[in-house]
Write a structure and sequence with these properties.
With about 200 residues, the chain is an alpha+beta fold. The protein contains 3 helices and 12 strands.
């Protein structure tokens, strides 16, 4: 089995993960020349000063509730995504926290050294985040209405169910909303909440 974690050889740092069970691993390497990548039969080498943007986000999925993502864009077009998890079997998605974090910290350090003016953002886009907050507000109003209705007619078991469901939902979604708040960051202040 391929080791999907970080590896160092001389001045190169690498990271790999499997985005799906089918297909080859997505491989990334930080070389003296720039970011080298191999994704789904395509490959490229982007100089550090050509990288125009990095967006870090928290993206849990049902198989892995602790998953992070980095989207890297290049001047003139092109984008690659790096995930902090790797498919191992049909039922197992393994976290690669240390390798993912170390790779991104080193990428930021090399970009800063190259003098890039890349846009560094964290979380969801502002429009998407506003839509998520609006949806959660409507859902909160609806749940509050149901709770008041259940209490008024004496359905205490139903009210207890609504309170329990709301608590579970707030616990599950609260971390996603808090971590993915839109913001900018700098090369020397990476957002800890978006690195495993």
């Amino acid at each position: 089995m391929i080791d999907m974690q970080r590896a160092e050889a001389g001045s190169a740092t690498s990271y790999a993960y499997k985005a799906s069970l089918i297909g080859s691993a997505h491989r990334f390497e930080l070389t003296e020349q720039g970011l080298s990548w191999h994704v789904a039969g395509r490959s490229g080498l982007w100089r550090y000063d050509e990288i125009s943007a990095i967006r870090l986000s928290f993206r849990p999925v049902s198989m892995q509730q602790h998953r992070f993502r980095a989207d890297i864009s290049r001047d003139g077009g092109g984008r690659v995504a790096i995930l902090s998890t790797s498919w191992q079997t049909a039922a197992l998605m393994a976290p690669q926290d240390n390798g993912f974090r170390d790779f991104l910290i080193e990428l930021h350090a090399r970009m800063a050294k190259a003098g890039t003016r890349a846009e560094l953002t964290a979380g969801l886009g502002r429009t998407t985040y506003a839509a998520v907050l609006a949806f959660l507000s409507v859902l909160t109003l609806a749940m509050t209405g149901l709770l008041i209705s259940a209490l008024m007619i004496g359905e205490f078991a139903g009210a207890l169910f609504i309170v329990g469901f709301a608590a579970l939902f707030a616990w599950q979604i609260g971390g996603f909303v808090r971590r993915n708040q839109p913001r900018s960051y700098s090369f020397d202040q990476l957002p800890r909440s978006l690195l495993p």
